[in-house]
Amino acid sequence: MDPSERLTKTKSRPPIPADPERRILITGGAGFLGVNAAVHLIKEGWFVTLLDNLSRPGTERNLKWLITRYPNRTSFIKEDVRNASILHLAGQVAVTTSLVDPGTDFDVNARGTLNMLEAVRLHNHDAPFLFASTNKVYGKLDENNSACKETQPIDFHSPYGCSKGAADQYVRDYARCFHMNTVVLRQSCIYGAHQYGTEDQGWVAHFVHSILNERPLTIYGDGTQVRDLLDARDLSALYAIAIDKIGITRGEIYNVGGGAENQRNLLEVIDQIGELTGRKPQFSHSDWREGDQKFYVSDITKANNDLGWTPQIPFERGLRELISWAKSVN
User: Fold this and answer.
1) What fold does the segment set 3-198+230-257+296-312 form as a domain?
2) What ranges do the domains of the chain cover?
3) Nearest Cα to Cα of residue 65 among 90, 23, 35, 40
4) What are phi and psi of 273, to 5 degrees?
5) Which pLDDT tens digit goes with each residue over 275-316?
6) What Å distances lie between residue 303 and 8, 20, 169, 274, CA to CA?
7) Quick count: other Cβ atoms within 10 Å of Cβ 46?
8) β-pair partners for 284
9) Coil, strand, or helix at residue 164?
10) d(CA 216, CA 326)
11) What does 239-252 look like in DSSP terms, one character per residue?
12) Residues known to be catalytic
């Protein structure tokens, strides 16, 4: 068995036969989250259509991998969500990019999401619509080192925070104003197989690939900033639950991350990767970046209470398996 196939398995059983009534469109479907979500849903009996413009490095490899393994359960549309002619995972994903080009950031994240909402409202009103939002809608936060609840006031910081925050609020409001089945998931740090990562986004995978290839890293700030880390397979399971329980999740907002048990700072993660790979990480420090949160951990109590969901993959295991996958593709 190919290592990447093994690492994306969430259950040791073959896929459930496809149900013709269970069809889902995943925007950004060839991306890291899209592919992981597709695999999980295919195994649960869904037929998956991927929509992606293939602009991000690694997406073509992900798409080929998925279609090769599930040719009868997937279809692909090469398109951009900015073109107005649902599991919504497409987006401009980096704060740094938004600071360089706020206009494109807005067009992709805010306008693209509105386009998708309008398409569903006009053509498939009752379809569940899940939106991958971000913890960045909360801004920098006070440094009180406490887990963030959904009741935390939003405070958009950076063009990225503004564009994702605007989309977040549109998705929520379409449940209220148009009675649509929309759900907002404010995601923290997601990692896992099929993530190539860059310095600007997907930092755990970026650290792994860089250390494996003996490339020096740049740490912005002192490296003690904390995030809660969630394996993409656990997130994909939540997507499926949120759809199946749309009567509960409709119009709701959930903070989604690894929670307090899976919180780590950057230096701790670098040390763990070094130990697991047998490589000595090389890194230097630079100034803090605009909009960076020094501490963010999700309070996932609401998702657990409403949906019975909690992460099943501890970070130590998830990191080992990410490293194993990265070795298979480097």
Assistant:
1) Rossmann fold (3.40.50)
2) 3-198+230-257+296-312
3) 35
4) -65, -40
5) 999 999 999 999 998 778 899 999 999 999 999 999 999 999
6) 23, 29, 19, 33
7) 25
8) 218
9) helix
10) 17
11) HHHHHHTHHHHTT-
12) 160
